[in-house]
Design brief:
39% of the residues lie in helices and 20% in strands.
């Protein structure tokens, strides 16, 4: 078997669901392939966890009786048919990761029982793969999807960060704050409850210093009910500015490059 075929057998190996030929071939690969060993360790960790979280259940009495009758009627197994325990491979001896004995084929069982048992493990193997997908998906969902929001959270977590509330203009109910790193190199505005605007209007950010107002860009904020995070495009430390603000302008922005022409929604004075 080629390497990829053997790699695909690792989940079943972790569950002790391979026949002796497949196991021997994979043992040879594990002795020389570090990537395969690492993958096996990951599957074994998941398999151990699932085993611990699955409560044991006693079989119904009628199934126990049926099993006893089948065992009593089974033909004796010859010495040649008995499964001879294999010595541990070098990899198993070093890592002590031999499959639990209850997952190995019991000595004395007919060959056909081994086949049925091996096939019955594949739903569990598929379940392990599905569990991995769910875990990775959950981790991805925990990550902030908005870089501006992630930067805001990073700054707020700093003990020496500065936090300045915004000042809402009359007639508007916006609220929020400006957060600045201690060195003033990065700053983010958090704002919510912005007013609704028409399709031919836009919000525009303004940065104000001793030379006047400069546009910080047009803001695409589709829903007034959401919370937004605006990263300020600073050309110098934030505290070197006189303040910042947002106004409502025509779709293409203020006709005056030197300042807002529409109503000012909120401002931040430094």
């Amino acid at each position: 078997m080629d390497r990829q075929t053997l790699i695909d057998l690792i989940p079943a190996y972790a569950l002790g669901a391979l026949d002796p030929e497949e196991r021997a071939a994979l043992d040879t690969l594990l002795d020389t392939d570090a990537e395969a060993r690492n993958l096996l360790a990951e599957y074994q960790a998941i398999a151990d966890h699932l085993t611990l979280t699955t409560p044991a259940r006693r079989a119904p009495a009628h199934l126990q009786d049926d099993l006893r009758r089948r065992l009593a009627g089974a033909k004796p197994v010859s010495q040649a048919e008995k499964v001879i325990p294999q010595p541990l491979t070098q990899y198993e001896a070093e890592t002590k990761t031999a499959p639990p004995t209850h997952l190995r084929q019991d000595e004395g069982k007919p060959a056909e029982i081994k086949v049925v048992r091996r096939r019955s493990m594949w739903p569990l193997v598929a379940g392990l793969a599905a569990a991995l997908v769910v875990i990775v998906g959950a981790l991805l969902l925990l990550r902030p999807t908005d870089p501006a929001e992630a930067l805001y959270a990073q700054i707020v977590a700093q003990a020496d960060a500065r936090r300045i509330p915004i000042t809402t203009s009359e007639g508007f109910g916006a609220s929020g704050e400006l957060v600045i790193t201690a060195d003033g190199a990065k700053a983010v505005i958090q704002v919510k409850s912005l007013p609704s605007i028409n399709n031919d209007q836009t919000f525009q950010l303004w940065l104000v210093d001793e030379s006047g107002a400069r546009s910080g860009g047009l803001l695409k904020l589709p829903s007034p009910d959401s919370t937004y995070y605006i990263v300020l495009p600073l050309e110098k430390p934030a505290l070197d500015y006189d303040g910042f603000g947002v106004s409502i302008e025509p779709e293409g922005g203020s006709p005056d490059p030197n300042g807002p022409t529409g109503p000012r929604v909120f401002g931040i004075s430094l």
